[in-house]
Amino acid sequence: MAPKRPKGAGAFPKAVDTPAPSRPDPDALYAALDLGTNSCRMLIAQPLGSGFHVVDSFSKSVQLGSGLERTGRLSRSSMARTVQAMRICQQKLKRNGVRRMRLVATEACRRAKNSRDFVSQVKRETGLSLEIIKPEEEARLAVISCAPLVSTKTEQLLVVDIGGGSTELVWIDLSSVPRRDRPAAIMRLHAGFHTTDSPFPAAKVVDWISVPLGVATLRDQFNDVLDDSARFALMSWFFEENLADFAPYKDEQAREGFQIVGTSGTVTTVAASHLGLKRYDRTKVDGLRMTSDQIDKVIRGYLDLGPHGRRTDPRIGEDRQALIMSGSAILQALLRLWPTDRLSVADRGLREGLLYAQMSADGVLEDGPF
């Protein structure tokens, strides 16, 4: 029988996109662009209290990593699609007068042999400077984006960011941090996982790992397996095998005070399916706590639908249907391994982390509960 979750162990954050002036001062705006293996996504926001208000956004499936597993290179067609998306981002940045920004690329560009040529092409054709970040920074940014979702009762925290080309896991010990300061201690990790000069009680990063398997790369590993259920099972066990070097994997953990926060399109899609949403609603998904039984029921439903049924299911969506089973295989492996029967759903990730990090570094966020 699944273990019971400590009562009141969840945290429900205030939405970050709360009301703000209709014409923000360009000097107060920040932008964050996340170019991943599958998607190009951008937020433009202004600080508001201890969070921020979203002024403009962009999201497009560009499939930059299409064919990368086979060739080791970004294809001409995927680069062309991505450059076109970056042009739209450039227009939004220009229209809003944004000066403070970080535009980052992750696993696909880290792995591709021709990534430097691609970054030069983006600069030449859009004027935007892409920065290829290392796995540790990607993991750190995902963690701080989830700070508002961390319960004050949480002593051991696992943050999981399931991307297109990689999955980052970060295990954090909060037991030495006073309860009310725990979300803020997570936010202070924007300065680094192993900083020691903070005057405040620190969140301790026990271990972290970047597994080079995300929803796109894991799917590509098993494209030749025709049976839907067999492919799903193989993907889940293969992902688990790749966690062997992650220290907390080997150690038994206490159930009390343990929280998993999951951030990704997979996690939010599973949550939307659980809620039966025909039209996605971030306010209903972000901060939702799902039990492992609820997640298993949704995943079993996906398997029952089969490939054709998933393609036509409005809860999954056209962009996500090709990747939902590889993401679900990762999610199932994680819940199989660690002592919790609940997952906190985060509709936030690298972009939000980039914004929080920039704003925190500039000292424009108010201290206090999120």
What does this 3D model show about the protein?
The protein is α/β, with parallel strands linked by helices. Helices cover 40% and strands 19% of the residues. It contains 14 helices and 11 strands. The protein has a 6-stranded mixed beta sheet with strand order 8-7-6-9-11-10, with helices on both faces. The chain has a 5-stranded mixed beta sheet with strand order 3-2-1-4-5, with helices on both faces. A hairpin with a 2-residue loop joins strand 2 and strand 3 (51-61). Helix 5 (135-145) packs across helix 14, helix 10 (265-275) crosses helix 12 (292-312) and helix 10 crosses helix 13 (324-337). The longest helix is centred in the first third of the chain and has 21 residues, at 76-96. The radius of gyration is 20 Å and the shape is globular. Residues 1-21 have low confidence and may be disordered. InterPro entries: ATPase_NBD, GppA/Ppx_hydrolase, Ppx_GppA_N. It holds the Pfam family Ppx-GppA. Residues 49-359 form the Ppx/GppA phosphatase N-terminal domain. Residues 1-23 are annotated as: Disordered.
